[in-house]
């Protein structure tokens, strides 16, 4: 998952960037409001960590921009713990608030807690890829880092076949059975290869090194551990 981190204290920022990347997150680091705005234009984020006091403004400004664009989780980082700042941040749509100094474990725990609340698995939502991929089975829609991904009917059916058998190695014949005739067309072994390639191109951060749909050499494919 890609996280926007806006923190003006470069020592704290570098330590957080290093530690969060070791936890498996991709971090885009900014030190002020201006660079934060630029990053929001150029990237799609799954979560934002915003310092409140910045050299050219406040994290509240970025919070408003983010929430106006789309609904993604926001956690404020601040040295201030007075009630006014807490209430203001939450009223603007922030999901949590952590006061400096804090332990990395506490921050990671807060991040995971917020993501669980945001993407609560209620039977109609499936979460994959370190919380970056969300499948809403009621709407038949797939989202990556909060943005909808357009899949064809066959691609969606194939993805569901994978996730409904999460953790299991599926042979090519089992996968073909899962998408058989969904669009009124015969799907052969070569076509299956093409569809898996297309799904990876749409969902994986690096399709050449897939982490969601994994190849199990000589056996087939699987999603999850």
Automatic annotation (TrEMBL):
Question: Is Signal tagged as a keyword?
Answer: no
Name of a matching Pfam family: Response_reg
For molecular function, the Gene Ontology terms on record are: phosphorelay response regulator activity; transcription cis-regulatory region binding
Name a GO CC annotation attached to this entry: cytosol
Kindly state a single biological-process term from the GO annotations of this entry.
regulation of DNA-templated transcription
Cite the PANTHER family for this sequence: ALKALINE PHOSPHATASE SYNTHESIS TRANSCRIPTIONAL REGULATORY PROTEIN PHOP, REGULATOR OF RPOS
What is this protein's record name?
A: Stage 0 sporulation protein A homolog
Q: Which organism is it from?
A: Alkalibaculum bacchi
